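Hey there, shall we discuss this one?
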Amino acid sequence: MSETAAKNLNPLAIFTGFIPWIAFTLVAQRTAADGVAWSALLAAFIGLVFVIRGRRTGSPTQMDIYSLVLFTLIAVVGFIGDQGVDQWLFDWGRPLVGVVLGLVLLATASVRPFTAEYAKRSTPEEYWSSPLFRRINFVLSASWGVAITVMGVSAVLVTALDAHASGTDSPYLLDFFLNWAVPILLIAAMIHLTNTYPDRASRDAVQNSRESA
């Protein structure tokens, strides 16, 4: 797999896979416990749209399927559960979705890296089974998995420490740091890695090949 053959992944394409998760988080945060089920239903609907679109253009991505399944489950539990269930979903289910997603991405990184589905859109098929292509997507998928897990754990900590923003005191600053600063910094780092790592890995592979020749 030559340096010119290794295409950069488009971070925007990967970002679209997280739209249902972002929609769920933002809407649930605004509507509180009473709106968790509706927030999950919205996210599941977006996931369904992506799955249908994926089937028409080839095959749905793992992210689309994860979104549809998980948010459908949360919506069902939220609608059939009582107020106590809604409150638990808001307090713990909402932040835990990030942990679940991150761990799933980590668990599948070595066997079915989710970034490979996006990379195949810009990489010739003859390179899909190459060691370099597999290594690039393992590193990127595992890195995204770690980043999403850390973001989820940060959100869980806000609930565990009862640090939800309600003013400008210390808990408010902790909420801002864990729920906003940490995710923004991690996403920026992952966008940079996604943009630069494929070319860097390709150059290293070419250099190693020349040195061993």
Confidence is low (pLDDT under 50) at residues 2-6. Residues 203 and 209 are 10 Å apart (CA to CA). The two ends are 16 Å apart (CA to CA). The chain has one domain: 11-208.
